[in-house]
């Protein structure tokens, strides 16, 4: 039993693969994520970077209508394709496809993580309500299905458009979810993307530690402890206000 406890206490010191970190505010949604073991995948337009995954970065090249109709025929059959051809002009088909791109992108949900633990003060200041919230340590190896598709962001000095040609490389449109300007690189963000926004449940074992910020109130800490009751393997800590650069002191509180 002592070895298990020591192992749990040692885990809090670890960063790098397979560990990732998620920074959260001191609100009820964070408590629900801990209690019910889910992660909320947010809408693109509600993220804090207005250029994040913007459809404007998709450069849809010339659409070969002949090839498109061949693809329709494979999907819905010749009769329905002929009906589409009669009802819609070539221009209308192309306009419909171009207008569908923003809808396609905006229906997806995004969950953000970082490679970096709490030594990154800007992350704590920006995403935990000025150290009043907390961050969560996950071990991705303990739920490989959930974390499959986790990717590091592609940081660029100037965001480059993604060239898409239907029936050739349309899958490249997913690259848009992993582009960010270079000035966000301090976050060292990793990201998961799902086809719909909302709650996605993961194995409880994947959550390893909860670290409350040094401005986290006693009232909120009590709520965190209550929400964590089903996670017998998860320790709760409180960070002391740092006095030495790049060094954390954590107090075990639950």
Question: Can you offer a commentary on this structure?
Answer:
The protein has one domain. The chain has eight helices and 14 strands. The chain has helices at residues 2-11, 28-36, 65-76, 78-87, 90-106, 121-127, 144-147, 218-227; strands at residues 19-24, 38-43, 58-60, 109-114, 134-139, 151-152, 154-156, 162-164, 179-181, 189-194, 198-201, 207-212, 235-239, 250-252. It has a five-stranded mixed beta sheet, with helices on both faces. Strand 12 (207-212), helix 8 (218-227) and strand 13 form a beta-alpha-beta unit. It starts with a helix and ends with a strand.
Layout of helices and strands, plus pairs?
Layout (H helix, E strand, L loop, with lengths): L1 H10 L7 E6 L3 H9 L1 E6 L14 E3 L4 H12 L1 H10 L2 H17 L2 E6 L6 H7 L6 E6 L4 H4 L3 E2 L1 E3 L5 E3 L14 E3 L7 E6 L3 E4 L5 E6 L5 H10 L7 E5 L10 E3 L2
Parallel strand pairs: 3-8, 7-9, 12-13
Antiparallel strand pairs: 1-5, 2-4, 2-11, 4-10, 5-12, 6-10, 13-14
Helix pairs in contact: 2-8, 3-4
């Amino acid at each position: 039993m002592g070895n298990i406890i020591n192992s749990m206490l040692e885990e809090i010191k670890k960063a790098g693969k397979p560990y990732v970190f998620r920074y959260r505010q001191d609100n009820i949604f964070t408590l629900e994520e801990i209690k019910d073991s889910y992660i909320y995948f947010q809408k693109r337009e509600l993220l804090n970077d207005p250029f994040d995954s913007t459809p404007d970065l998709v450069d849809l090249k010339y659409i070969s209508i002949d090839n498109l109709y061949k693809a329709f025929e494979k999907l819905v059959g010749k009769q329905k394709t002929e009906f589409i051809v009669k009802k819609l002009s070539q221009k209308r088909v192309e306009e419909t496809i171009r207008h569908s791109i923003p809808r396609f992108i905006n229906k997806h949900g995004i969950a953000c993580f970082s490679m970096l633990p709490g030594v990154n003060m800007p992350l704590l200041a920006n995403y935990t309500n000025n150290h009043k919230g907390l961050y969560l340590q996950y071990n991705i190896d303990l739920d490989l299905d959930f974390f499959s598709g986790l990717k590091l962001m592609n940081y660029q000095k100037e965001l480059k458009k993604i060239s898409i040609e239907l029936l050739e490389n349309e899958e490249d449109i997913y690259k848009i979810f992993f582009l960010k300007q270079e000035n966000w690189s301090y976050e060292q963000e990793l990201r998961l993307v799902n086809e719909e926004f909302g709650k996605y449940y993961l194995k409880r074992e994947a959550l390893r530690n909860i670290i409350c910020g040094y401005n986290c109130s006693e009232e909120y800490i009590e709520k965190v402890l209550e929400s964590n009751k089903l996670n017998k393997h998860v320790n709760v800590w409180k960070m002391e206000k740092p006095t030495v650069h790049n060094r954390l002191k954590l107090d075990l509180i639950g």
